[in-house]
């Protein structure tokens, strides 16, 4: 019998939003070893300069690659993906997968599209290039919100989502879009609330499943069946007052308790 060792998959985000991507990957690849890392010391990433974002991301990922035999890195953050991928791919000899707004699949089903993302993502030329390339004849409305990122983080530690506040944020899209691209990995955690305030008359699309397929393709993983016997490990870059609630969430997802990185103070 040949013993097949699990692949080590590193998933990185500024907060816990990347867990939406983790869930999709883990569903396709349940037998692998997962390391989840988030840079909460600099959350939210949408407010960082590009140079600081690149420096922080490369520092943390390099640190984790020195601790574990990482086989693939997933940048589960739309803001970071539009900025750091070239630098990381130059520095690392392993595959690096990023997340981009799912404009292409949205344009296949609708001509009235809303792109919901962070303010940084809606400003990027990369985003406009995606729209020009894949949705040239669609009406694509952009809405950037840091508050929605915070609301998703709050939901992950057990706080209720303020539906009135959410409705006010999404008010410009009531009756104007029928398909919404969730252009931030935090936003899939708000799917039910978004549908509720928009009266369920909207299709929500995110990139999680496509990213999971890409990771599976790149790893060429042998199907072993069953769940990994090893718990995943989770790291953050600063102490958090919500540690108990976060550990409950991570425990439910088969992770060990939070550990702290030697994070850069810049």
Automatic annotation (TrEMBL):
<protein>
    <recommendedName>
        <fullName>Glutamate racemase</fullName>
        <ecNumber>5.1.1.3</ecNumber>
    </recommendedName>
</protein>
<dbReference type="InterPro" id="IPR015942">
    <property type="entry name" value="Asp/Glu/hydantoin_racemase"/>
</dbReference>
<dbReference type="InterPro" id="IPR018187">
    <property type="entry name" value="Asp/Glu_racemase_AS_1"/>
</dbReference>
<feature type="binding site">
    <location>
        <begin position="78"/>
        <end position="79"/>
    </location>
    <ligand>
        <name>substrate</name>
    </ligand>
</feature>
<feature type="active site" description="Proton donor/acceptor">
    <location>
        <position position="184"/>
    </location>
</feature>
<keyword id="KW-0961">Cell wall biogenesis/degradation</keyword>
<keyword id="KW-0573">Peptidoglycan synthesis</keyword>
<comment type="pathway">
    <text>Cell wall biogenesis; peptidoglycan biosynthesis.</text>
</comment>
<feature type="active site" description="Proton donor/acceptor">
    <location>
        <position position="77"/>
    </location>
</feature>
<comment type="similarity">
    <text>Belongs to the aspartate/glutamate racemases family.</text>
</comment>
<keyword id="KW-0413">Isomerase</keyword>
<keyword id="KW-0133">Cell shape</keyword>
<dbReference type="InterPro" id="IPR001920">
    <property type="entry name" value="Asp/Glu_race"/>
</dbReference>
<dbReference type="InterPro" id="IPR004391">
    <property type="entry name" value="Glu_race"/>
</dbReference>
<comment type="function">
    <text>Provides the (R)-glutamate required for cell wall biosynthesis.</text>
</comment>
<feature type="binding site">
    <location>
        <begin position="13"/>
        <end position="14"/>
    </location>
    <ligand>
        <name>substrate</name>
    </ligand>
</feature>
<feature type="binding site">
    <location>
        <begin position="45"/>
        <end position="46"/>
    </location>
    <ligand>
        <name>substrate</name>
    </ligand>
</feature>
<dbReference type="Pfam" id="PF01177">
    <property type="entry name" value="Asp_Glu_race"/>
</dbReference>
<dbReference type="InterPro" id="IPR033134">
    <property type="entry name" value="Asp/Glu_racemase_AS_2"/>
</dbReference>
<feature type="binding site">
    <location>
        <begin position="185"/>
        <end position="186"/>
    </location>
    <ligand>
        <name>substrate</name>
    </ligand>
</feature>
């Amino acid at each position: 019998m040949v013993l097949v060792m699990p692949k080590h998959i590193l998933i990185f985000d500024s907060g816990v939003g990347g867990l939406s991507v983790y869930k999709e990957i883990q569903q396709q690849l349940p037998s692998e070893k997962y390391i989840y890392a988030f840079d909460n010391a600099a959350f939210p990433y949408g407010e960082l300069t590009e140079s600081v974002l690149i420096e922080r991301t490369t520092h943390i990922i390099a640190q984790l690659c020195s601790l574990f035999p990482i086989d693939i890195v997933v940048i589960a953050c739309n803001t970071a993906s539009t900025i750091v991928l070239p630098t990381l791919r130059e520095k690392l000899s392993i595959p690096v997968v990023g997340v981009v707004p799912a404009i292409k699949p949205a344009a296949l089903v609708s001509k009235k599209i809303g792109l919901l993302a962070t303010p940084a993502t809606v400003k990027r030329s990369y985003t406009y290039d995606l729209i020009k390339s894949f949705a040239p004849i669609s009406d694509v409305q952009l809405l950037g919100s840091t508050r929605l990122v915070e609301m998703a983080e709050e939901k992950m530690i057990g706080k209720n989502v303020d539906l009135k506040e959410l409705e006010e944020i999404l008010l410009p899209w009531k009756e104007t879009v029928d398909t919404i691209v969730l252009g931030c990995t935090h936003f899939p955690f708000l799917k039910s609330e978004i549908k509720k305030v928009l009266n369920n008359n909207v299709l929500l699309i995110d990139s999680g499943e496509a990213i999971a397929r890409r990771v599976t393709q790149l790893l060429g993983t042998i199907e072993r069946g069953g769940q990994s016997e090893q718990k995943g490990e989770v790291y953050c870059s600063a102490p958090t007052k919500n540690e108990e609630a976060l550990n409950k969430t991570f425990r439910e997802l088969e992770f060990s308790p939070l550990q702290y990185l030697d994070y850069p103070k810049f």
